[in-house]
Structures are given as structure tokens and as C-alpha cells.
Amino acid sequence: MALVDETGIDEAGFRMSEATAGDFFALLKPRVMSLVVFTAFVGLVAAPVTINPLLAMIAILSIAIGAGASGALNMWYDADIDAVMTRTAGRPVPAGRVRPGEALGFGLVLSALSVMTLGVLVNWLAASLLAFTIFFYAVIYTMWLKRWTPQNIVIGGAAGAIPPVIGWASVTGSVSLESIILFLIIFLWTPPHFWALALFKSEDYGRAGIPMMPNVAGHASTRRQIFAYAVVLAPIGVLPWALGYTSAAYGVVAALLGTGFVWYSWKVLRMRDDDLAMKPAKALFGYSLLYLFAIFAAYLADSVVARAFAVGA
Fold first, then answer.
1. Paired residues of 15 in beta bridges
2. What is the pLDDT of residue 308?
3. Which residues of the chain have a pLDDT value below 50?
4. Sign of the CA dihedral with 135 first, then 138, 139, and 145 last
5. Helices marked H in the chain — which ranges?
6. In the prediction, which pLDDT does 8 show?
7. CATH number for the domain including 194?
8. Cys bridge to 66: 58, 114, 251, 296, which one at CB 3.0-4.6 A?
């Protein structure tokens, strides 16, 4: 057993890690992971065929681990900009609790584990989609788009929108129009959600040199784009009912949620440039989280009820 002195350096001259289990858990971005798992679960349950419960658990666990791997790789690469942003300075790598190499190794191991487990035990289409999602988020978005273009969130949002498609593919071994609509809901939700955050965190992004839309195009242009996305998102949320995938109950809930999104976005559009409190933007950011959870919860409930009636018929 290596001896360690009071500086944390062992007898071979290597600094010992001070990371705790909680630090490695934080690398997984658990709040983001929970949303990924939930939307993937909705895609899995909404699929028109059933899956063995054990395989379903393996699929969801693999997707969760893959999402966590993406978060760890993101924190490894973004440690430099995380360190200068108040929202992210306390993360394990910039705070010095986890070494960059540890975060990189952790993310790579989890990536391989999640993809191989999903492929071998469930199916390789779902595994391929998971591998693409990890690659897209860690490489295309984190290493390229995020620091290069104000459209980073728009294009990069594809990574966060794929989980329900992976859940669907885990059950069916295919991709359908219904799963693509679930993808579109998240894809169109992502820009107004993050741009609302960027409006009241623009100084943070400016210090980090990240070309977020408010810093590049200005607040007025960002507000107009937020409203435009909200107007497009609202009917897409109702589309599953219009195409006959869900009941009218889901359609009513989705319409009300979409109307709320447009209303909050309208308040952001009408916000004054000198509104230092940014209350409309903060309100939209909070509502957007509620919107995504609620619309997928409604979709899940509708699918469960429909399946229960089909079994009882």
C-alpha cells in the first residue's frame, strides 16, 4: 500500500485523488440524466409492443449511464469555461475535486459500458442511437458547436431529443413517425428553454467566450427567436392527438401547455431591454421545465390508460 504525505502525494510522486463518490455522481449531471431517463421511458412505454420487464430495466439503465457518460465527457472538456461561470464554477473538475483525466476516463468507460450493454442485451439499433447521442453531445456539440456558433443549442439540441427514440427503438427495433414527433417536441423546446437562461446569464457566457444567442445577436433578436420557436412548438405538441396516436385528453393538455408556453414567450418578447431583473425570462425558463415534464407525463399517462383499456377489452 502506497504511503501518502500531508500534501496528498504518494511515495511514487503521484498526487492522490481527493474525489468522493458524490463528486463522480455530480459528473453524471443527475438533473439532466433524470430528464433523459424520463423521456426515454415514455418512448419505451408508448411503443405499440411490449418488452420483457428485465430488458426494459436494462434499456433504461443503459440510457441513464450513457447520458451520465455524456455529462462526464462534457465536464472534462469544458472545465476551462466552467471555471469562469458562476453557474458551473463549483462543478467537480473546475473546483479541483476531480482531475481532468479521471473525468475523461470515467466518461469513456461509461460510454463503452452503456452502448455494449444495450447492444448485446437489447438490440443494436438502440445501442447505435445511444452511441450517436453520446458522440454528438460530447464531440459535435461540446467540442465544436458550443464554442463556434450561436446556433449551438439549436443543432446540439438533437442529442437531448433522441432519448425517447432510443426508448422506442429498444422495444420495437425500429424508428417510427410517432417517436420522431417525440424527438421534435424536445428539439423545438430546447432553444427557447436555453435562450431564456442565456438572457439572464449572458454575462456568464460572455466571460466564458461562449457565443450564445444574446451575446451575438443581442437580446431583442433572441427574444423574437424564442417567441418564434414557441409558436412552432405549441402545435407540434398537439400533433400526436391530431395524428391519432393519443386520446383527446392528451390533446387538450398539450394545447393548454403549448398556449402557456406561447404566453410566457410573448411576455419575454415584450420585455424591455433595460429590464435588469429579467423576470419574464426567468419565468419562461421555469415554465419550460414544467412544460416538458408535463407534456411527456401526459403522453405517458395516455399510453398507459390506452393499453389498460386494450387489455380489458
1. 9
2. 77
3. 1-14
4. positive
5. 21-27, 30-46, 53-77, 79-82, 100-121, 124-135, 146-148, 152-161, 163-172, 177-200, 202-208, 213-216, 219-242, 248-269, 279-312
6. 45
7. 1.20.120
8. 114
The answer to whether residues 284 and 196 belong to one domain is yes
Measured over the CA atoms of residue 61, residue 64, residue 69 and residue 75, the dihedral's sign is negative
Tracing cell 473546483 back to the chain, one arrives at 95
- In angstroms, the CA 262 to CA 198 distance is 18
Residue reference for cell 393519443: 246
**What DSSP designation does 141 have?**
I
The grid cell for 271 is 420585455
CB 5 within 8 A of CB 79: no
d(CA 193, CA 183): 15
Q: Could you say which DSSP state residue 9 is in?
A: B
Specify the amino acid at residue 3: L
276, 245: one domain: yes
Domain tally, the chain:
2
Range of the domain at 104: 17-175
